[in-house]
Amino acid sequence: MKSWFVRFLLLATALAALAAAWAAWSVHRPLALAAPADFIVERGQTMRAALREAAAAGAPLDADRLYWIARATGRAERVVAGGYEVSDGMTPWQLVDRLNRGEVAHAELRLVEGWNVRQVRATIEGHPHLVQDTADLSDEALLARIGADEAHPEGLFFPDTYRFARRSNASALYRAAYEAMQRELASAWAQRDPDLPLDSPYEALILASIIEKETGRADERELVASVFANRLRIGMRLQTDPTVIYGYGESFEGRLRRRHLDTDHEYNTYTRGGLPPTPIAMPGRAALLAAVQPAESDYLYFVARGDGTSKFSRTLREHNRAVNIHILGRDG
């Protein structure tokens, strides 16, 4: 009788050891996936529910069996909500560990220099890995949501590549981009030339947005800025095409004509003096610095040469000759 009982214990111990070895092998075996499996864990979901979401997304694992192993080892109690990714080579146990620790998957979004706010909103509110908590908000309500004091959103978001946890709120990304622009603008304003013809950081932001739209050449930004600064100093109208185009919004048909330049509106710098009421795009760091540190020059005009560079002129006569050559194709 005693011998039988000993044999039974030995068999039970061996079977338990085999089961434990199999469990260890199964949870530490790398998963084979042709493409990452993305899934979302909602707030309040259990470990079992989270693992079932992973399996439903395409992860080749037995969610219920993995749950019981996690439960037996005390790893099933804590699950952090968010967006997760199961990738090729990850083990089931690594997935459990990530769910425990909240190691959510991340995504990226790029805001490009020169974009207007319509493009910014379309990009953010169309991103598949953001929770869209701002899509139904007006521009004014959006600014209130992120704590901005400005009345108009144009130019307030810094162009950069933003990395964020999947399932983050869109409002959090707007806030990050807004705060980044506030930091960049404050830094640029602190470095401004003492005789700069601008009265506030917001005016610098407006001018920087115009510079951003006028040129993408690093070697010309400060010269373009000097033309506008010189004009502001003597009360000369800026006469810059991008502001006119911006004022027409989505109704602009793609070609600037004389009637556009002659039709007065608040963004038409051909008919009105000074700066437009708001920025016209998102300026990058280089444009911000150019706006507050323009080159020293006596230029009042510039025109595109057609090769990506500009011809700068001091007098209207010089400018008209440059227009004849580079725009009209005449020999002066």
TrEMBL record:
Q: Which GO terms describe its biological process?
A: cell wall organization; peptidoglycan biosynthetic process
- The signal sequence is 1-19
Which positions does the site annotation Important for catalytic activity cover?
Answer: 214
EC number(s) stated in the UniProt entry for this protein = 4.2.2.29
MF terms in GO: lytic endotransglycosylase activity
The UniProt keywords, alphabetically, are: Cell inner membrane, Cell membrane, Cell wall biogenesis/degradation, Lyase, Membrane, Signal, Transmembrane, Transmembrane helix
Question: Does Cell division count among this protein's keywords?
Answer: no
A Pfam family that this protein carries is: YceG
Reactions that this protein is recorded to catalyse: a peptidoglycan chain = a peptidoglycan chain with N-acetyl-1,6-anhydromuramyl-[peptide] at the reducing end + a peptidoglycan chain with N-acetylglucosamine at the non-reducing end
InterPro entries assigned to the protein according to its UniProt record, in alphabetical order: MLTG-like
Any one GO cellular component localisation term in the record? plasma membrane
What's the superkingdom here?
A: Bacteria
Q: What does this protein do?
A: Functions as a peptidoglycan terminase that cleaves nascent peptidoglycan strands endolytically to terminate their elongation.
Q: Which family does it belong to?
A: Belongs to the transglycosylase MltG family.
Q: What is the protein's given name?
A: Endolytic murein transglycosylase
Lineage per the UniProt record: Bacteria, Pseudomonadati, Pseudomonadota, Betaproteobacteria, Rhodocyclales
